[in-house]
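Appendix B, example 12.
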Amino acid sequence: MILSKPLLDYFKSIQAKTLQAMAMSNAKTPYLLQKDENILRYEAIRDVWIEDQSVHSVCQKHNCSRSYYYDFEKRFLQLGMVGLLDTFTHVPQFPKLEQLIIMARKSRPTLSNAALLRIAQTIPITSEGVSIDLVSEILNSHGLNPSCLATDEAFFGRIQRTLAEYENLIKHPAGKREVGNRKKTFFIDEDICHKKLELLRELFYNPLAKPKELCVRYGISTTSYYRLINDYKLYGPWAIISAPSYGKQASIGGDTELGIILEKLKRPHWSPQEIVDALDLKCSRFVVTRVLETWSLLEGNLKPVALDEYVVEEKAIVEGAFEAPKSAYQMLPGDVLLESRRINRSFDLVCKKMNTNTYHICDPGPILLAPFLNDFGITQAFETYGPPRLRGKEITNLPLLNVMRILAGYERINHLSNNRDRSVAFASGIGLFGSRSKYYDDAIEFKFDNLHKLRCDLVTRALELGVISGRSIGFDFHFKEFFGNSANEKGIGLGPDKSGQIVPGFRPHIAWDLAENVIITMAYYQGATRSPRILKSFCERDLFVVLNRLQVEEIYMDSEYTKEADFFYLKKMCKNGDIYVCLRQNLQIKKLIEPALNSSQGWEKNNEEDERKTIDATLPKTGLKMKIVILRNSSTKENIRCFGTTNIAQMGEDILRKYPHRWTIENGIKDLIKSYFVDEIFGHDPEKVEFEFYCVMAARLVYEYFLKQLGGHHYKKEDGNKTTLSTMRQLLFEKRNCTIRQDSNQNLVLTFLDFGDPAEKNLVELYAKLTEAGTNKVLWWGNRGLIVEFKNQYKV
């Protein structure tokens, strides 16, 4: 939609007006905006309908005419709450021209407004009425003008989707109200936008009101409430209209579509197949025909127009050497934090008492792992990328407490209140008593942007410490079922569980280092998310920003990733790597293997039950060469399975032998469930769930770093596996008789009073080596170190 200048000015200033109104009213939740006609109209309607005030007095109060009041009251009767919102839309709309300009600007950002004008003038369907001012208005309406900020595209993109939903609501009104029965029909269940605005109004005028109770009363989920608060600060009253997602994107990219248009304008006599051949497109002629029909370019009376002078291709960017990002641990020295942040007062008092007193504990695991968690720089990362409101106070932070809770073996944070052992609180640097209420209050502050940066920093630090190598990567989803009520209202997507049933839940996407058997990263996605839609964005946002993709040697995927475009993308990005995948038998794969299945030649015995056949295939759309191994039952000729690789020199039996290497990620996910409680996440808020995933990642990487430093049979067993965290808890980390005290050098001394696993003897040497290397210190303990000793309490 092309926005009028008053509406553009309104949205550009609404954020400042909202913050100013909150400051002047000293309110935590925004509602009342000074001189905002949308709010004034609603207040006038409310005064008449609910407060039983006369129209005459209300008009005098709000300084408006009676005819103006009756006009917007009529819209309120017909359309509901959205009828009171004014779009200031008095400009003509050109939907096709708008679509063309946005597509061209996004696909080729270097094009000038004049070049966009030339393109629009040469296409018959968009040539009428186009001008340089109109092009500028369209770009301004979408935040794409050269003078716009980098964040304007997302800001105005949300506004455009809101206005599209507004037009839909205008066409399908929520319900009818009656002038003769104003009080009873003021609230109707169908008008969700009205309920949202009334919820904000009640919270604004009644600070003692509890948001959860109001959400239940108005039928609004807690997730929608928090989102509404944030959106209202940016978009004002328009935040009550939900912005739908972008929906299904086009089958081809904007740059390809623009290239087809320009080629047809240059050579009108060319057929769609000639355009496909000339541009070397990875699509069929039918797609080209559909594009030409959309822009009315199939007519025979078109004259050749060459726009080479105006439409200049973007210069190819020469890819340089990969520069690994630096972690927050490297950029923010711990001494700087100690000078500017305070140690928790309760922890400091406990340490002073330990000069003369000794405390007994039974779960030493978190205390033992604290120096290794310190090496990951979780405190520095929090002060660099964490929520601004929580920074600059104590060195101890919320992720620290939650990671310690996971390492100690408590499934949820409220389990800490039922246990008398205070190892988690002490190891986290908050004394001997944790705070459950503080956990829930502060978790709201974490946003996806904060968590993404924290997660990338964690992976960066793991690479610096050598915990991750990034040579062999496996991709997979994990489905966490949601067992609460009202999944649709809370925005929980639907996905398949282990039995194949479609149920609500979360579906995090996981990248695993198969060479080191450790998690690389894990990102939140809704249950309805599928791999073909997010694999590219996941790799570019979470993986290749920290990993050197040219060092990737092998990529393993299961059958869910059977999409030609995914193989082509990964092979293009990881030029030195090969893909190993279990192929789902979709229509394309069935067509490729059909000649091999119909032929009885070339089959080899694989084992007592199965036979195999290896074929060379070329994927039709991208031309990517693959070697495919077909496996089937030798007697029934059924139970057909397919495995493929881009390593065309690989033998069939070698492919079948290498693919089970992907099972490492399956076992790793099971360990995340059992040892790190990834299925015990609380609530349904996406950002809180993402926060839990970040803490699970940190806990797993810290334990892996501890195992690597410890060495021995726990790190590398004869069968190639490692001792899991749940097993190590039973051997060393929990249910032990220990004491902790402070020595004269202010180091903490952890004494085991009983003996168990032989690995205990290696602990003394391990922490002595850390002391020699200068890494035996914990920042949130005031740089105190840890000394481990063993004492037989029964020896006389």
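DSSP finds 32 helices and 16 strands in the chain. Residues 368 and 535 are 38 Å apart (CA to CA).
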